[in-house]
Amino acid sequence: MFLETIHKLLIEKVGVPERKITKQGKIYRLSYRGSYLVTAIKEWLYQDSSIFLERKKEKFDSIKKRQRGATYSKRSNKWLSKIMVNRKAILLGSFLTKQEALLAYNEFVEKNKLPIYLLNKI
């Protein structure tokens, strides 16, 4: 089935998690939620494209883009790097710059072989 092929491609190329393909009447559906997943799929779809539907691209571009894993602490005047794994918050450290905090986050994701869509683009 066409949708199964698309699903396999998304898993292989983008690193999205397995999802169940559902059926409602004659319609098959594959759903992904969350701005990070949707952004990762968008970037993969449009990476080499010169032709696209403007309204679809605008919809993707309207998704809030932010970097994951770095928050500023006014109390300590430092950047904190945190990640959630299996519903547990892990503090990766405090840093003088946002860049250092993001790098620590990315290193943790790569070291622990977490899904690639969690990586920040730095």
Descriptive overview:
This protein has helices at residues 2-14, 35-46, 54-61, 98-111, and strands spanning 22-24, 27-29, 70-73, 78-85, 88-95. By secondary structure, the chain is of the alpha+beta class. It has 2 domains: 2-61, no CATH class; 70-118. The strands form 2 sheets. It has a 3-stranded antiparallel beta sheet with strand order 3-4-5, with helices on one face. Strands 1-2 form a two-stranded antiparallel sheet. A hairpin with a 4-residue loop joins strand 3 (70-73) and strand 4 (78-85). The N and C termini lie far apart (37 Å). The mean pLDDT is 86.
Any descriptors?
single chain, 122 residues, alpha+beta, two-stranded antiparallel sheet, 21% strand, elongated
Structural class: alpha+beta
Helix tally equals 4
Mean of residue pLDDT values: 86
The major sheet is characterized as:
3 strands, antiparallel
Total number of distinct structural domains: 2
Give the DSSP E fraction (strand runs of 2 or more residues): 15-25%
Topology order in helix (H) and strand (E) letters: HEEHHEEEH
CA distance, first residue to last residue: 37 Å
Give the strand order, joined by hyphens, for the main sheet: 3-4-5
| Topology, number of strands | 5
Whole-number radius of gyration? 17 Å
Report the principal-axis shape.
elongated
Low-confidence stretches: none
| Fraction of residues in helix | 25-40%
Briefly characterize the structure:
The chain has 122 residues and is α+β, with helices and mostly antiparallel strands. The chain has helices spanning 2-14, 35-46, 54-61, 98-111; strands at 22-24, 27-29, 70-73, 78-85, 88-95.
